[in-house]
Amino acid sequence: MLSNWEVFAGDKTSIRIATYDSSVTTANLMRNNRATLVLVDNGATYYVKGMAILLKKHAESDANNAIFEMRVRKVLEDKLPGTKITSGITYTKEKGVEPHEELYEELKRR
Predict the structure, then answer these.
(1) Helix (H), strand (E), coil (C) string for 12-76
(2) By the 8 A CB rule, do 15 and 8 touch?
(3) CA distance 86 to 73
(4) Is the CATH code 1.10.3720.10 the one for domain 4-109?
(5) What's the CA gap between 76 and 48, in Å, rounded?
(6) What residue segments make up the domains of the chain, in order of their start?
(7) pLDDT for the residue 93
(8) 15 versus 42: which is more confidently predicted?
(9) Tell me: the pLDDT tens digits for 34-73?
(10) Cα–Cα distances in Å, from 12 out to 4, 15, 56?
(11) What is the pTM of this model?
């Protein structure tokens, strides 16, 4: 799961993402370069599929994150007429933990 601070869409065909460098996600992306981002909206779910290449094993702003660039190949929509998603993933934020603004700025710069 990625937060809005860990994803940046540069244009219609390019998305930069930050993942924890020691995660299974990072290992899988490095091994097979395939990625699928799932976006859930109240009316539909979208699957953004593409190829991801490693840009940096350790981000400058946060050495615990790797940075990938994903080239979008296909976007699929999963929608059932008359049906809406009525709840989603919720979370709480620990006191003192701030969003990764510097990491997001690094994703935008590339």
Answers:
(1) CCEEEEEEECCCHHHHHHHHHCEEEEEEECCCCEEEEEEEEEEEECCCCCCCCEEEEEEEEEEEE
(2) yes
(3) 29
(4) no
(5) 7
(6) 4-109
(7) 75
(8) 15
(9) 999 998 887 788 999 999 999 999 999 999 999 999 999 9
(10) 17, 8, 22
(11) 0.85
